[in-house]
Amino acid sequence: MGAQEDTGFSTRQVHAGAQAAPASPRTTPIYLTAGFTFSDLDESAAHFSTGSGFGYSRTGNPTVQAVEERIASLEGGDQAILVSSGQAAVTVALLGLLDAGDHIVVSEHIYEGTRGLLLDNLSRLGITVTFVETADLDAWRAAIRPRTKALFAETLSNARNDVLDVSAVAAIGAERGIPLVVDSTFTTPYLLRPIEHGAALVVHSASKFLAGQGAVLGGVIVDDGRFDAAASGHLSPHLVGTDRLGGPSYAEKHGRRARGAYLRESVAPRFGPSPSPLNAFLIGQGVETLSLRVERQSANALAVAHWLESRPEVERVDYVGLPSHPHHALGRRYLARGSGSVFTVTLRGGLEAARHVVQSVRLITHMTHLGDVRSLILHPQSTSHSARTVAERERAGVFPGTLRLSIGIEDVDDIVADLAQALEGLASLARGGDRTDAADRGTVREVAVL
Ligand SMILES: *Cc1c(COP(=O)(O)O)cnc(C)c1O
User: Fold this and answer.
1) Is 87 near ligand 1, meaning CB less than 6 Å away?
2) Residue range 191-241, pLDDT digits in tens
3) pLDDT tens figures, 129-155
4) What CATH number belongs to 59-287?
5) Kind of pairing, strands 201-205 and 342-347?
6) In angstroms, rounded to a whole number, what is the distance separating the alpha carbons of residues 126 and 106?
7) How far is the CA of 65 from the centre of ligand 1 (A)?
8) Nearest-CA neighbor of 270 among 110, 58, 43?
């Protein structure tokens, strides 16, 4: 990887982590194997004591490693750990920081799976959460307690498209040695690299933009390699204390890489959400076109958002790329290359208008996913945000008439034409003309699929 370190993003997305030995495969092969043979006893002993080489795919695999090196390079991080899903990435990152009885401060505007993990699962370990408004810096600071071990937020949130002021929140954590963990799924390292702004850990659902084509699930955690035992050791007894046999601590063995080493050696392989080498390969292939896709998706999304905002059927469009968005200025500071492809539009006609549109689109796919090359649509109130109260939904920008769009790489005129024909039907819906027809086509499934 060394030769690519000072090259540009698009160069690194195709070269970083790739092997280039003469007469070897140009793509990193899929090492679809549970384990690797040892040549002698010393080699197996060395693998078990120092982690050298490859032994078993749960602790290391060449296909997985190539993707990890590529993503670490793109994020400007020290090391990346690939896991089986975005949900696993969030879980592993938090289990690497929090003990039973600890506390975490979290933006209120987060992915429902993460919210559920905190409220239903980590709560069973006695881990408590304080939710704060993303932009309220005083609230972040005021929420910190003696046992606060992490701050957590998403770079760009669903549904309101709030932008995280990464450096401001990271600085609040740094005052007490508390790491900021950022879920950067919506922005990808092409649009924003939180580690450059002070975040300690970045997590992604690689199922979304990184893989990009909706074929696989995956997740990744990137560590900044800046663990400071003097500033953060008191919050991390598992990193600065001796090991179970009285041996040296992670901090003694790995220095500033201690946090990443602990995630790689102790959390991910023990809790066990290992990525399949086949899925890793597909994520690596996806990453090779990341900049091209996200650039196009951001341009398409901006055009679609502008168009929607001008339509009489539309009450509001929450896209940070639009000057009307309250975080537009902050977005321009952090998202110079584009504002991503995911945003919400709220229709004046409420639930029935939303139902009509998701059931009338032809090109745009009605499904729960995002960051795909294809444009997708979903009704958050009845799906991703159904486990929230009405007041919580309204604070998140989710109303009965709200639809989430994830804009793909199609020709933008075709996306707009599809939405136009779907909105056209709203006029006849308002007159009562389309009512039976819409009812015949069934109801929006009111199932929470995260
Ligand atoms: C999808 C998503 C996740 C969870 O990722 P999976 O790969 O579906 O497990 C986490 N955070 C955000 C922001 C997401 O969009």
Assistant:
1) yes
2) 999 999 999 999 999 999 999 999 999 999 999 999 999 999 999 999 999
3) 999 999 999 999 999 999 999 999 999
4) 3.40.640.10
5) unpaired
6) 16
7) 21
8) 58
Helices 412-431 and 290-309 cross at an angle (nearest 10°) of 30
**Would the pTM count as exceeding 0.70?**
yes
Paired tokens of 233: 């050791």
Domain range summary for the chain, segments of one domain joined by +: 59-287, 290-448
Residues 55/62, Cβ–Cβ less than 8 Å = no
Which residue bears the tokens 């696989």?
A: 216
Q: Give residue for tokens 């940070």.
A: 320
274 to 52, 207, 213: CA distances (angstroms): 19, 14, 21
Q: Is the Cβ atom of 224 under 6 angstroms away from ligand 1?
A: no
- Ramachandran assignment for 60, one of left (phi > 0), alpha (psi -120 to 50 degrees), beta (any other): left
Pick the CATH number of 290-448 from 3.40.190.10, 3.90.180.10, 3.40.50.740, 3.90.1150.10: 3.90.1150.10
219 touches ligand 1 (CB under 6 Å): yes
Helix (H) or strand (E) holding 277: helix 277-287
